């Protein structure tokens, strides 16, 4: 079809009319074809869900980063403002004591507050133990994937030392 046969990207004439819908399912598909179609559809669905989640997370992360920039800016301004507060406190104490003593008192207060905050930070960081449950579950993966791992548990679960037999024992080893 040449470009002269088209008007605004739409063909003006139909060259052929299909006699069969190429997308129509076959009247009697085999089990293999059904499994193939189901696998393809599940794969497409999972990919679409992952792409949707990625888009949503990207959007939320961008919003979070923008918000955190404003919080960091506010904290920087607050940090620089504390200088003026402590200077004001020293000048206020200057009314009752010598000027150098007033600044020494303010310095001492700042050192004590710093020491207390450092102690709180140390106590919080000391409690960090790492992802223990994750490490535990990762160590269990090889046992879970090995055939017969339930048999060892069944033997240890038996009170008389005999292997457990019955509806809970799996003869296949899985």
Automatic annotation (TrEMBL):
Keywords tagged on the record: Membrane, Transmembrane, Transmembrane helix
Keyword Transmembrane helix: yes
Residue spans crossing the bilayer: 69-90, 96-123
InterPro entries: Phage_holin_3_6 (IPR009937)
Signal peptide: none
Region ranges (Disordered): 1-25, 146-174
Entry annotated with the keyword Thylakoid: no
Name of protein: Membrane protein
Organism: Mycolicibacterium agri
């Amino acid at each position: 079809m040449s470009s002269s046969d088209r008007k605004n990207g739409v063909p003006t004439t139909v060259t052929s009319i299909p006699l069969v819908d190429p997308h129509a399912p076959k009247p009697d598909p085999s089990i293999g074809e059904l499994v193939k179609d189901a696998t393809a559809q599940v794969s497409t669905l999972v990919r679409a869900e992952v792409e949707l989640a990625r888009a949503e997370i990207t959007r939320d992360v961008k919003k979070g980063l923008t918000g955190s920039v404003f919080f960091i800016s506010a904290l920087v301004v607050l940090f620089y403002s504390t200088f003026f507060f402590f200077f004001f406190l020293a000048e206020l104490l200057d009314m009752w004591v010598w000027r150098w003593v007033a600044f020494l008192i303010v310095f001492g207060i700042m050192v004590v507050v710093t020491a207390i905050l450092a102690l709180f930070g140390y106590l919080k960081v000391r409690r960090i133990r790492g992802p223990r449950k994750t490490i535990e579950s990762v160590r269990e993966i090889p046992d879970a994937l090995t055939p017969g791992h339930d048999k060892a548990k069944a033997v240890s679960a038996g009170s008389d030392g005999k292997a457990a037999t019955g509806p809970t024992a799996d003869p296949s080893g899985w």
